[in-house]
Design a protein that fits this description.
Blueprint: E1 4-7, H1 10-17, E2 26-30, E3 37-38, E4 41-44, E5 47-52, E6 57-61, E7 64-68, E8 72-76, E9 81-83, E10 90-91, E11 95-100, E12 128-129, H2 132-149, H3 157-182, H4 184-203, H5 207-210, H6 215-221, H7 226-237, H8 241-258, H9 263-269, H10 275-286, H11 290-299
Parallel strand pairs: 1-4
Antiparallel strand pairs: 2-11, 3-10, 4-9, 5-8, 5-11, 6-7, 6-9, 8-12
Length: 300
């Protein structure tokens, strides 16, 4: 069984590295100052941003294993497990880490706004890939935050620290959106695979045993997280992945009804548990009932 280091607070990680930092809720680490270090597989109760400057290394994250490349920013959130199991070897690495505890944001607007930073939910192979300019911006901000942490505490310091972290997260969000813009071909590729997946799902009659396809099912089959998948489909189509699936199902319902099938038979063939579920979805998506749609067909 793998030995897992529990990072309940930032000082747990600091102590593992042999690093001292004065603030109990925030730590900025320059890895060149603490190397060589031993790897560790960590269970995080804090937020963490890890920027690697040296060669790539294979890391575990959840149930996956991915390459953590040079210039890649890895973001973790409380409840996640990641890192590399300690094999006894010491390695010299370069890069930066920022760790901060959720308690830091009590009584601040950021406490309820962390959900707007979706990169905390993503697996390592969906991490942020930094350009040289983006890397330099992030390192500069971490250096400034570290300098602030080393100053004598006063009435303004906590607000300044939270402000720095929010700026860093907003820059990461900008870089993250840039990554989407630069990956138009990837979005198109995933959208094509999504459409093929939906088509195969019904042609192979999986709906008869599994029910209607879900966002989670599609994301799993495409080997990406549901959040990342949802963002790609939203940016590629302007619609949510869930609604995209419903629109696809509506098209199949119309095809079934056009061939003369009854509403009940169409519901069964398409994997609806009850006929009224089909009718409700059809009305919500088209503004008319299946019966009204069939009447319109007969008029043509």
């Amino acid at each position: 069984m793998s030995k897992i280091l529990k990072i309940k607070n930032v000082n747990d990680y600091n102590r593992y590295l042999g690093y001292n930092d004065s603030h109990p809720l925030v730590s900025v680490i320059d890895y060149s100052e603490v190397s060589p270090i031993r790897h560790s597989l960590n269970n995080y109760s804090v937020y963490g941003l890890f920027l690697r400057d040296d060669a790539s290394v294979e890391l575990d994250y959840g149930c996956g294993r991915y390459d953590y490349n040079k210039g890649t920013l890895l973001c973790v959130a409380p409840g996640q497990i990641g890192g590399k199991e300690d094999n006894g070897e010491c390695m010299s690495i370069t890069g930066w880490a920022l760790l901060f505890h959720p308690d830091l944001f009590h009584d601040t607007p950021l406490k309820n706004n962390l959900s707007k930073y979706p990169f905390f939910d993503y697996r390592i192979n969906e991490a942020l890939h930094m350009s040289g300019e983006e890397h330099d911006i992030l390192v500069s901000l971490m250096q400034q935050l570290r300098d602030e942490l080393r100053k004598r505490h006063d009435d303004f310091q906590d607000a300044i620290i939270v402000g720095y972290i929010e700026i860093i997260l907003n820059f990461c969000l900008r870089f993250y959106n840039r990554q989407f813009i630069c990956e138009k071909s990837e979005k198109s590729d995933i959208l094509m695979k999504f459409n093929r997946l939906l088509q195969d799902y019904f042609e192979e009659e999986k709906q008869l045993s599994l029910g209607l396809p879900t966002v989670q099912y599609c994301a799993d089959r495409l080997c990406i997280s549901s959040n990342y998948f949802g963002d790609i489909i939203k940016k590629a189509t302007g619609d949510t992945a869930g609604n995209y699936i419903r629109q696809y199902i509506i098209r199949r319902i119309k095809n079934e009804l056009f061939t003369g099938k009854s509403i009940t038979q169409a519901a069964y063939d398409l994997g609806f548990e009850y006929t009224q579920h089909l009718s409700r979805m059809f009305k919500n998506q088209t503004g008319m009932t299946p019966t009204e749609y069939c009447a319109n067909i007969r008029k043509k």
